[in-house]
Known about the structure:
The chain is α/β, with parallel strands linked by helices. 38% of the residues lie in helices and 16% in strands.
Amino acid sequence: MKLSVSYLKNKKGIEETLQELEKSSCDYIHVDLMDGIFAGVKNYEIDNVLSLFRYTKKPLDIHLMVKNPELEIESLAILNPKYITVHIELPNVKKYISKIKGLGIQAGVAVNPETKVNELEPFLDNIDLVLVMSVNPGKGGQEFLPTTIEKLTYLYELRNKKNLNFAISVDGGINDQTKQFVKSYANILVSGSYICMTDNIEKQINTLRKVWIGLIMFGTSILIVTAIYIQWTSLAGIGKIGNEIILGIQGRYFIPVIALSIF
Length: 263
């Protein structure tokens, strides 16, 4: 699981916050751009955005909350972002997806809380990212909407069923508590004020990652114990039968080592 940090609501000012994020262990910088029509109050001029991120090395995860994003897509391509995401609620979303991918950038589609998630289905085999909004777009610091979990579950199960390759991202109200509800389904967590409204950005990032590190350590411990047991059964003369019981080689034994599924 990866972490994309939004600087929309911050404590230290945009430039200092971005400098800290550039040096931090986050995976992406999440760039929220609003035109004041589709969502919120307009918070950008293209030239300012290009100047702000001109020398940024951290991959950019650009979220366009814009009614007509064609100009923004063309202009922002020079930054070579990892993702550019547009909204399913737009009338020409298929055109924008093609535009993004034609520029060699991975295309994302975002879905607002009030929009039914199945509206995404016609596009899922041609996009790289689904951004599930767990708050209403346009304002930082909102609380996580519990209805998001149902959407994440639906997308996760549909992706597995149809063997699709899009990543699932969730944006809004993500903190050390709400991550527990989404970590089983999301590939990317977008977190903003929880991280950027603190004095120590890296510390907050590490706190948000803590549960994943714990799971990895737990899974590694299970692997070690399993390996020791297999070795013991071999030395004790149990041999092949013991190994089959642990590994289920013949497909007739149930192995209650759930932690291995983490990997």
